[in-house]
Design brief:
The chain is mainly β. The chain is built from 6 helices and 21 strands.
Length: 395
């Protein structure tokens, strides 16, 4: 019995120690626990399931709580209006007119910036994105929408007049120009408030990224699998060669969903030399310098502090520079040959900096210039070792 009580006590303490989430009741009481299935939502949730430290559960809505935290995110309950006109009229496939239209909403607003008593909130749902400025206990929408006028997109920037009214007295250098160049998105608004409020620690987007970008520099060992085929005879001739490569890339993480989604442009360079020999054919050779330009998207299947596993797919432009073929003698090609293909990659990240990746490049077919009776097809596999230079994180 004593052991059971001890175990229960330890479980309770562990739960309390690791509970980083909380919510505030309508009466102002703070309750600790955890938000179930927190995914760092891109769009604001309308409700969440919250598990209290004692194991009981409650579904939080804007009507039954003042606010809640989920990880590093803070959501405030809001009851009021929002501009319902489209914020991007071209993507909405309609024009709701030049007059302002407002909806009444009960919603959770996500806090995206806070400094010196001011807070910037975002409401992002299936209709559009709205931003709100909070000062002490007062919240006001930064009103913006787009309409079509004389066949052109016409932005209605009411929020700029409000911001001018609020901050012009601070005598900020080039304030009018800053306000004129301001765009209605999180990054621009964040930068604007950081400059206006003198928030030096958050004055650049790079320092605000929870999941900072990485510059990748790597080397690889590549197996180039070539196939030679005659249009007039049945036999296929296969040959593989191994070649080194170097590559440079950039990995850009989504700032939501715990940075599990990412985009990765990459440039790779390697030599190609395939030589085909057979009893029924003369020796044939393919030679080039391959330059690969790829743009891919990936997802972290496992993402931990010291180890991560990801899968990535990419579209690739494979450029064969200096491409020439040999059937007795070399025949060069004017310019470079380019082919579009795809790449599938599976990778391992160790302690954030060391990347080990295995990838497969889908086949591309080339013209065998030295003898047009033959076609040449190339596919590849590679093992790459990369080092990631991390560009600072949120402070």
């Amino acid at each position: 019995m004593n052991k059971l009580l001890l175990i229960s006590f330890l479980v309770f303490c562990a739960t309390a120690a690791f509970s980083q989430d909380s919510y505030t009741t309508l009466e102002g009481q703070k309750i600790s626990g955890s938000v179930e299935n927190n995914r760092e939502w891109l769009k604001n949730p309308s409700s969440v399931v919250f598990t209290n430290s004692d194991g009981s559960k409650i579904t939080l809505t804007p009507e039954n709580c003042k606010s809640f935290t989920a990880g590093t995110d803070y959501y405030l309950s809001y009851h009021g209006t929002r501009v319902a006109n489209p914020d991007h009229v071209l993507s909405s496939h309609n024009d709701e007119g030049a007059g302002i239209i407002k909806d009444t909403v009960d919603a959770f607003l996500r806090q995206v910036y806070k400094f010196d008593g001011y807070a910037l909130y975002e409401l992002y749902d299936n209709k559009r994105i709205n931003f709100y400025l909070g000062k002490d206990d007062n919240i006001r929408e930064l009103e913006y929408y787009e309409t079509i006028k004389d066949g052109n997109v016409s932005p209605i920037n009411s929020y700029k007049a409000y911001l001018y009214q609020q901050f012009a007295s601070r005598k900020i250098s080039d304030f009018s120009e800053k306000l004129k160049d301001l765009h209605y998105n999180e990054n621009d608004l964040h930068n604007f408030f950081a400059q206006v409020l003198g928030d030096q620690a958050h004055a650049s987007e790079k320092l605000r990224n929870k999941y900072p970008s990485e510059t990748l520099v790597g080397v690889g060992a590549n197996v180039n699998a070539g196939t030679m085929h005659s249009w007039t005879n049945y036999p296929y001739y296969h040959q593989t060669s191994i070649a080194p490569s170097v590559e440079f890339g950039l990995r850009l993480y989504s700032q939501r969903n715990f940075g599990k989604f990412f985009f990765q442009p990459t440039i790779g360079i390697m030599p190609l030399l395939n030589t085909f020999k057979g009893s029924a054919i003369a020796t044939k050779t393919v030679k080039a310098t391959i330059i690969d330009f790829s743009m891919g998207a990936g997802y972290m299947i496992i993402k931990k502090q010291n180890i991560s596993v990801y899968a990535k797919g990419a579209a690739e432009m494979r450029l064969f520079a200096g491409y020439k073929t040999k059937d007795g003698k070399y025949l060069g090609d004017d310019g470079s040959n380019g082919r579009i293909t795809g790449v599938a990659e599976l990778g391992l990240i160790i302690k954030r900096n060391l990347n080990i990746a295995f990838n497969n490049t889908f086949p591309v077919r080339m013209t065998f210039k030295a003898n047009t009776n033959y076609s040449y097809k190339l596919s590849g596999m590679s093992l790459a070792l990369r080092y990631a230079f991390i560009h600072g994180g949120k402070k």
